[in-house]
Automatic annotation (TrEMBL):
Organism: Chitinophaga polysaccharea
PANTHER family on file: CONSERVED PROTEIN, HTH-TYPE TRANSCRIPTIONAL REGULATOR RV0880
Domain HTH marR-type, first and last residues per copy: 6-140
Pfam family, one: MarR
This protein's record includes keyword Transport: no
SMART domains named in the record: HTH_MARR
Protein name from the UniProt record: DNA-binding MarR family transcriptional regulator
Length: 145
């Protein structure tokens, strides 16, 4: 059972992390024309290589119809490819296009550059060491079920 001290830590940490994530999302001019769901689908395709539309819909907790519209928009921007499955002609395999991969790399580079600059400008060497040490426990929180 969490103690009062852990409750206070959680209450302080949550808004700071949320604001940092929002700030990183806003800082990417390369991502301005995409919704959060569209960005999430691109990341899933980057992680998994290729997926079916139905798999993406389940992962994003969307209806198949909504996912179809989202994928149509990404396709119109040339960020994904659609290929008929060799095993089942009724299924369409979705993957990142070359432009989609480049977009993800550009966004990550923009965010990494900003964060690196912010860390070096705003944090002392001691604070940078604290941030480095915080990566492991923060990773545990991300992976906690």
């Amino acid at each position: 059972m969490p103690s009062r001290k852990q409750d206070q830590l959680a209450a302080q940490l949550r808004p700071v992390l949320a604001r940092l994530v929002r700030k990183l999302r806003k800082l990417s001019p390369a991502n301005e024309d995409l919704s959060q769901s569209e960005r999430s689908v691109l990341v899933l395709l980057d992680q998994h290589g290729q997926l079916l539309s139905a798999e993406l819909a389940v992962m994003e907790k969307m209806t198949p119809q909504s996912m179809g519209q989202l994928l149509q928009h990404l396709f119109s921007l040339h960020l994904i490819t659609r290929t008929i499955s060799p095993d089942d002609k009724r299924k369409i395999i979705i993957a990142l296009s070359k432009a989609g991969k480049e977009r993800i790399e550009r966004v990550r580079k923009e965010r990494d550059e900003w964060l690196s600059y912010a860390i070096s400008s705003a944090c002392t060497p001691e604070e940078q060491a604290i941030l480095q040490a915080a990566i492991a426990p923060l990773s545990k929180l991300v992976d906690f079920e």
